[in-house]
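Supplementary Methods, section 5.1.

A reviewer requested that the exact input to the structure prediction be made available. We therefore reproduce it here, unchanged from the version used in the analyses.
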Amino acid sequence: MHIKKITIRQMKMRMKSPFATSFGSFQEKEFLVLEVTDELGNAGYGESTAFSAPWYSEETLQTNLHIIRDFLIPLVLNKEIKHPDEVSQIFSPLRKNNMAKAAVEGAIWDLYAKRNKLSLADALGGTAEKIEVGISIGIQKSTEALIEVVRGYIQEGYKRMKVKIKPGYDVEVIRSLREAFPEVPLMADANSAYTLDDLELLKQLDEFDLMMIEQPLASDDIIDHAKLQKELKTPICLDESILSLEDARKAIELGSTKIINVKIGRVGGLTESKKIHDYCMEKGIPIWCGGMLEAGIGRAHNVALTSLPNFILPGDTASSSRYWEEDLITPEVVAIDGYITVPNGYGIGYEPNLEVMERYTVEHFTFEG
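The structure derived from this sequence is encoded token-by-token as follows.
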């Protein structure tokens, strides 16, 4: 592939409803879409998952824009790339900035699959024809409201309920949910809201037969999580702490985690995601694909990744209509009875809707070799 042109679109879309976690609430979603074009006119698409503020990680939309425009594009523009696995090596001299790297790398993966007349899932080595999906539910105004939201998603067929928790909104909330839904697969996501001082409180969650508690302690920690896991029956799932295969290896060896959430942007792209997948499969650690409130292009990448065989737990990739009045792709991502069919068209398998993309584009930048 000869990379001839790269376009960055700065997008702004309004979600159907606000999304609240332990670090804040928002409804406007700003993000970047990358379009990478080769010498034959084929185009591949990627999406940056960084938020507009550093809630989840230190990366933001503006830092991603800076890193992509000023550092990453010069490294790949007008270059010959035989396989997308080369991109992470090309980017390796630049420290971190994983979400920025993943956006560019993801577009090149899509382009590679299209050039080779493969679906992205096939290009990655995926085997599943459909994937199980769960739902991520933000903090609600009341426990009663949360129960009704969960009830609705159960009726829609979603296979797992992920509920955000924070200090003061945790044990009693989960207790109420478990009493209302004794059999539903349920997990709690803490987004690093607790410390080891909260050990006795977190141990109370063991009585509710949760699938897991996600990232209860600091976002860069694996040591205290190992101490906590020894005290809990509930499996700990690490999210923010895992930025690479090396992080996954160390966390598993320390006993810090029994499950890993793989997010393409967080770990720096599809190539690193595959490496983590393969290592966890070898070690018998189940994984699932987390969500970052992606629009359609990022959502399509998640679907393709989740087709790999060790993604054995339902992920966060819900239907487009869960978040958006209209999405950027045709057809939109649709979950039916808790399953999404993995598309078999070339590349991501969904067509970018350029008319809709133009409507939500705030600014765009084009670079040609």
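The chain has a mean pLDDT of 96. These observations are discussed further in the main text.
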